[in-house]
Amino acid sequence: MENNKNYNELPDINDENEKEYWIEYKKTLSPQIKEALIVKYKYLLEVAANELKSNIGKGRLVRLDYDDLVCLGYLGLLEAIDKYPHDKDVKFKSYAFVRIQRAIYDIENIYYELKNNISNDLKIDEIKDGIFSIALKEIPTKERIVLILYYCQNITLKEVSIIMNMSKSELSKFCKKSINDLRKKYKIFYRRNLEYKKKYKKIVKALKKLPNKYRAILELYYIDNLSLKEISEKMELSKSEVSTLHKKAIIDLKNILNNNKKHIK
After folding, report:
1. Cα torsion for 163, 166, 168, 172, to the nearest 10°?
2. Stretch 6-13: mean pLDDT
3. Backbone φ, ψ for residue 153 (5° rounding)
4. CB 3.0-4.6 Å disulfide test: which of 13, 99, 100, 134 passes with 73?
């Protein structure tokens, strides 16, 4: 086995010589060998993404796309290479596949780790987890991939540049752009969140001024998501009575809110 020290020339790792390369990698942590292992096994990222793509838009994978799954899987592959017990009777393919899938499903922890690692670069005084995750999901996928790879693993820009097929200088500029885009998105959603909280407080305050029956109908309809028919059964009123009370409650609530606005002005 040749120990190729030229970073641009990767060793040709195959099934016959792989065991020797694992021994060498664990001794030297050679970046050439690591990159060659990534090249050999990165097909697993698409295999894992294909198995999970039917779950895109559901549960933890809500608002993710196929490229996101591949991106998150990279973290699992890199972790698998670093932690693989090469001297045990465990095939790397099986070992890595489990970690790739776990990395994809561990998205909230990844976002939390990213938030902590990126906070200083964002230059924002107060960063909230939920808003950060929303903002991160709103920037382009490629930018999200770069930020997660660079900030969530102890890998260099050079290694990320190889994974992303970008030069180191291109990646450096792209990383700064990604940070700026994330900062802008975060500020937008942070302001929206503050506006939402203000509106929510006004509505809650206005609801307290409504008659109990009006407030009960609005809460059952808009908070508990009951239908007018279900509300009529629960409150022992006819459906037409509930419908009439619902309309009056909305009108009264709007009047209270409008009067508050005029008062604020």
Report:
1. -100
2. 72
3. -135, 150
4. 100
Model pLDDT for residues 89-128, shown as the tens digit of each residue: 899 999 999 999 998 888 878 888 888 889 888 888 888 8
Per-residue 3-state assignment (H helix, E strand, C coil) for 235-257: HCCCHHHHHHHHHHHHHHHHHHH
Q: Which of 102, 115, 106 is nearest to 144 (CA)?
A: 115
| DSSP single-letter state for residue 209 | T
The amino acid that residue 44 corresponds to is L
String of b and e for 245-259 (b: at least 16 CB within 10 Å)?
bbeebeebbeebbee
Q: Residue 153: is its pLDDT beyond 80?
A: no
The two structure tokens encoding residue 160: 């990320």
Burial of 45: CB neighbours in 10 Å, binned 0-12, 13-18, 19+? buried
The tokens describing 254, both together, are: 């709007």
Q: What is the pLDDT of residue 74?
A: 87
Alpha helices in the chain (DSSP H): 18-28, 31-41, 43-52, 66-83, 92-105, 107-122, 129-138, 141-152, 157-163, 168-207, 212-222, 228-235, 239-264
Q: Hunting for tokens 């409008």 — which residue is that?
A: 258
Condensed to tens digits (0 to 9), the pLDDT of residues 16-60 reads 999 999 999 999 989 889 989 998 998 999 999 999 888 887 777
Cα–Cα nearest to 183, from 123, 99, 95, 120: 123
Amino acid residing at 208:
K
